[in-house]
Design brief:
The protein has about 70 residues and is mainly α. It has one domain. Helix 1 packs across helix 2. The longest helix has about 35 residues.
Length: about 70
């Protein structure tokens, strides 16, 4: 995606490969930092919302139709 956006914005200039590698490395570092911060937050929120059971649940008993 960064390749396509760079081609659309700049075209094929003389130092295109250097510019693309620089933008790709910056995007990778930003994505890595964001994911390192967001993943524990999402995990903490989901652990409060979802109860994990160690024993299997019988779906016939879990779903009650009246």
């Amino acid at each position: 995606m960064s390749f396509t956006l760079l081609v659309l914005n700049l075209g094929f200039v003389s130092n295109f490969l250097v510019l693309w590698l620089r933008s790709l490395s910056v995007a990778f570092v930003v994505a890595l930092v964001i994911s390192a911060l967001v993943f524990p937050l999402v995990t903490a929120i989901l652990s409060r919302l979802v109860t994990v059971r160690s024993d299997p649940v019988n779906l016939g008993e879990a779903i009650r139709t009246e």
